[in-house]
Amino acid sequence: MKKHGFMHRVLSYICIPIFAFSLTMCSAGLETTPAPQSIPAPPPIKPPTACGFGPGDVACNFKLVDQNDTVVSLYDFSGKAIVIDFSAMWCGPCQFAASTVQATQEKYGENTFAYLTVLVDNFEGEPPTVLELQQWANHFNITAPIMSGQRDMLDPTGENGWHLNYWPTFVFIDYDMTILEYMDGWNEEILQEKIDKLVLCELKQA
Q1: Tens-digit pLDDT profile for residues 14-57
Q2: Mind listing the pLDDT tens digit for each residue in 72-98?
Q3: Whole-number percent of the chain with pLDDT over 70
Q4: What angle do CA 63, 124, 8 make, to 5 degrees?
C-alpha cells in the first residue's frame, strides 16, 4: 500500500469533532506541571506467577511483535511508569491520540517512562501486519513501541483480559508493575494530567 493511500484512509476516519474538556472514543463492540526528567526507577521485575487485569493487580505479561518486527514483552519496560494505549487503526480518536505519542514519550524520556501502543485492529478489523505498524509509525512520526495485538487479549469485564469497552483505552501501570487505573476515550489534557501524576507517583489506585 502506498503511503498516500494510507494517509487517505487515516484522514477518512477522522470524523469525530473534539470539544474542549470532552472525551472522544469509539465503541468497541487543566494546565499540567512538567514532570522531572530523572526519577530513580527500581530494577526490572520478572513476570509474576499470579497476575490480573484490574486496578491493584500486578499486570499480566504479554509478548507482541512491534513495528521493527521484534517480539516485545510488557515486562521489558518494568521499572518505568507505563501507559498502554489500546487502539484501532480505523478509530478517529485513536488517530488523534497517535499524533501526541512521540511528544509525550520525549517529554519524560525513555529511562523513566514507556508509552506502548497496542493496535488491535487494522482498517479491516484484523490484527495489523508489521507493514501496517510501520505505516502507522511513519505517518505519526512515532519511534516508541507500536505492537500488533489481538482481540483475545481483551475482556469487557476485565476478568480474563485487559478491560476494554471503548477505543482508545489507556492503562496506567506503576513502576512496580501494579495497574493503577484505566481511562476510556481520549482527551489530551486529561491524559497528560494523569501521565504527569503517574510519573510523579501521585496517581492513586481506583
Answers
A1: 443 333 334 666 666 623 334 444 455 555 676 777 899 999 99
A2: 999 999 999 999 999 999 999 999 999
A3: 77
A4: 110
Instruction: Give the domains, in start order, of the chain with CATH numbers.
Output: 3-15+53-199 (3.40.30.10)
Amino acid at 191: L
**In this structure, are residues 179 and 173 in contact, taking their beta carbons and an 8 Å threshold?**
yes
Phi-psi region of 145 (alpha: psi -120 to 50; beta: other; left: phi over 0): beta
Angle at which helices 188-199 and 101-108 pack, to 10 degrees?
20
CB of 178 within 8 A of CB of 57?
Answer: yes
Write down the pLDDT at residue 13: 54
Determine the Cα–Cα distance for residues 119 and 98; give it in Å rounded to an integer.
11
